[in-house]
Amino acid sequence: MKKYLFFSVLYVLSLVSCSSDDSFPIDNTPLEAETRMNVSYGSHPQQVYDLYLPAGRTATDTKVIMLIHGGGWTSGDKSDMSASVAFLQTLHPGHAIVNVNYVLADAQNPAFPNQFLDIKSIVSKLTSESVELHINPEFGMVGTSAGAHLAMMYDYKYDTNNQVKFVANIVGPSDFTDPFFVENFPIQPIIDQLVNEDAYPAGTNFLEELSPGFHVTGSASPTCMFYGNEDPLVPEANGTTLKAKLDANGVENVLRIYNGGHGNDWSNADFTEAQGIISSYVSEHL
């Protein structure tokens, strides 16, 4: 009797198994494109980002391009990067794009290290939600001016999990020890305004600590760099100095120095070349 009962149970289980396969077919319908605006990643009103998820995305193939705006760490907005969103969606429709805000520096909110930690929070949030979002949390970072500084600093110092695969640095300061800065700006008042000194060890040399070039190692990501030879804010030497450090550490890099200032007066041909180089970095490294 027990023998027959055993085989009866096996028979019922086999029917249930077949029935389950028939009743719950796998949904292979490609996901539709989705845009999520002003997604919060913290308690401050400026801690938000816009997320553009492409159609047909998958958790293995859909990697993320992060856009970081400039503005001297005290101003600017993700809307400044809207043209870059459109450009990247056109050339790289299979990638997700996150266009970010960070808390702008003021008397209550020093920039450093808080803005680096904002970028870290965004990476952590997208990583923790990657299964739900159907994305692969590997990142290419494209920053302009102060945003390029944040991108470089995050990759060279804070990206301990090696999730950043390339950095596009558009007129970003990379070496504050360059005499250009001391000669043209009131450095100590700027440090007093922008830095939470309590967050760093006593005696920290902030000109070095906040310079991405001083954090370059062999684990730095491939970096493409674009500077102007008449820039009143960031000297072209910041590009050549950074390239030398990347070369010394065996890190792939490209440097272009264009006629003009802080990126807003370069020729159309130069803009087109820079866009092409950034696009090739997306294709090759992400």
From TrEMBL:
Domain BD-FAE-like, first and last residues per copy: 50-246
Signal sequence bounds: 1-19
MF terms in GO: hydrolase activity
Keywords: Hydrolase, Signal
Pfam families: BD-FAE
InterPro entries: AB_hydrolase_fold, BD-FAE-like_dom, GDXG_lipolytic_enzyme
Name of protein: Acetyl esterase/lipase
Phylogenetic placement of the source organism: Bacteria, Pseudomonadati, Bacteroidota, Flavobacteriia, Flavobacteriales
